[in-house]
Hints:
The chain is an all-alpha fold. The protein has helices at about 1-20, 25-35, 40, 60-80, 100-120, 135-140, 145-155, 160-175, 180-200, 200-205, 210-235, 240-245, 250-255, 255-270, 275-285, 300-310, 320-355, 360-375, 380-410, and strands at about 45, 55-60.
Amino acid sequence: MGFIILILAAACYRRISRSAGLFSWLAAGFLAFFVYSIPAIIGLKRSFYYTGTIYLEPASNYAVMSMIVAWASFYITLQFLHLEKSRSIYLINSYSHNYDSIILSSLLLSLFGIIYLIIEGGSTFFLISREDQVENYLTLTWRWFIVIGFTAALVGKRPYAALAFLLLVAIIFVQGDRTIPAISLAIYFLIAIGSKIQKSSLTDFLFMPKYIAAFIISIIIILFGKPIYLSIKEGSFYYLTSTIQSWDLEVLALSAEPFVTFDHIEAVNDLNIQISFVDFFVSVFGNLLIIPSAFGVSTNLYNELVTANLPPGVSYGVAGNYWAHAIAVGGYAAVAIFAALFAAALALFDRTHINQRGKVRIWIIVLASTTAIYLQRNAMDNFFSFVRQIILCWLAIYAISPLIGSTFLPKRSSLVNARHP
């Protein structure tokens, strides 16, 4: 049945490329959706809970049909949306707003986060194994200051500031977090590279070394991200060299996240995991509370239910699956609704990020990128936990940026007078 998904994906691509454009948030979300649908297309998956040897195995018709329903709903929703050709942020009055106060505020708050991590874990905190790292509300939230600052540096055309934030992204990558680097790369491609292609031909773009380098780095992170940061942590190239030496399609598939997260759909069905509408709404909208746990509200309900139903002693390290969460809430009908919401949200981001100005624009870009890239491998309640963290970081920046701007920056400040990266 995988060919049905290919047909629906081709139809969606045609609609998006003609209406929204290939450098839009809708296109980015479509690409992530397609990548995470590859297991359904080829009919293979890898169990995310196991006690012995891991291997690829045939996917059930139920799981594949769930993805067909998702793609059909996504396509139908696109037909009802009014899509406009996305224009680059750079091409729309980029200099009418001064983003320097946002950049500097984000940088200061990011550095405070680094100092806290050094106090808790030492100067080499980023080399500590993920199991032994300090994880609390502050350590999970501070990283969004980096993404917000990086976005403001790109939109405000401050290349050296962007480079500083990229160095902080590299530290996060070495820690073992691939989500923030992936979201940062998505923002870079759609803002900086997208503007270049819109102002020049695709052929010209192919001969721009720095953008080609960015693309190559993206591919390397996708394929070898985990062995790279493990090799850095251990001070040895063993993990990287062993991965390359044993390179084959099955090894690549076994380490690829889409094959693992896809199995959540079957697990929810096999384990008969069900979430009532009341529990669903509480877990999702409980994120409106600053600290939901203080009120006894769980915003990670899907993860908790799946974990509770797994055999004892099983490793469970994957956050979830957007479509599996839908299955648990309401079967195929919920899958269709979730897909419609996904398409509508991306289209809304495309329409609003070019019309907003100042601080709001940066916030929308970060939310849009997170939705497009990160939603597929998470349950909706856990995803909104990240949205809550982004909003809290943004409120902190919004609160201190006027003071930072008036104290450290002249009226017409310029952190960097150079071309954008």
